Give the backbone structure.
Amino acid sequence: MILPFVIFIISLGVLIIAAKFFTEAAERIGLSLKMSPFMVGVVIVAIGTSLPELISGIIASVTGHSEIVIGNVLGANISNIFLILGMATIVAKRSIKLGKEYIFIDLHFMLGSATFLVLFLLDGEISRIEGACLVVGFIVYQVYLMKSDKPDEMPTLNDPETVKKMTKVQWKDVLILLVAALGIFIGAKYVVQSIQDIALALHVDKTIISLTVLSLGTTLPELAVTISAARRGQPEIAVGNILGSCIFNSFMVTGVASLIRPIEMPFDLAKTSVIFLIVAAVFFYLLSQDKKVSKWEGMLFLLFYAVFIAKITGIA
């Protein structure tokens, strides 16, 4: 019983260190490509830190464990909004300010991806056709990001002199990005494996594991990257990472997994988590209308997450 705890601590350390290097390299590459801080967050960082959800979803689908796919996606998105955003506001030096692009388009995509996921779950199955629709939704979002000319109201991630020197992508940064991404994947894999072993040893139901332990484990990269960005005074990366990860999870993780094999999960099993996902998405949208998320609102998010865990585990 001691070994899983040792593996958890070591792999968590690898995960956090890899996330730090990944964020820094991604920022430099993004700025070299003349991407805005928001684009760096939703394109590079968000997708990179969502690889554990995608890989675990593919593995679960191939092995026929549909409840793990949906549980992981629902739990991860709830964790992204309530836990990670809440933690980001606590550690940030100031309230997290949002640019107007979050209000007009990107928050709508987040709400839309959650809505599609919930609607497709109502009959207890996500078919291959529905999975294809989800993948198309993500492609549409990526095309929008690439085509849109968003006003960059957010501060740059580095000082002006550093930005001026970023005329082309350095191969060193690419190598760091790849090695760090591998570290994130390996660290997350062993974190998830070790906490699953601990949970199974305690005779915890598999559905509960996927909604809580597994989803929390696979969102640790997002947590590490988001907190690191918030503490360094880069809230645009923090919130961009959360938005991008939620959209990626709902569209791509679920879509790709259901293309491999239709996902089946009785709505009764997902009902509580679906309700919390809707509350999380709508609450995030409403609170962001003043273009900022305060520490007090972050504390409220953390309280919601605590209630979610209590409900799922049967404590409350």
Observations:
- The longest strand covers residues 96-97.
- Residues 2-151+171-313 form a domain with the A middle domain of Talin 1 fold (CATH 1.20.1420.30).
- The radius of gyration is 18 Å.
- The beta strands are 96-97, 125-126, 263-264, 292-293.
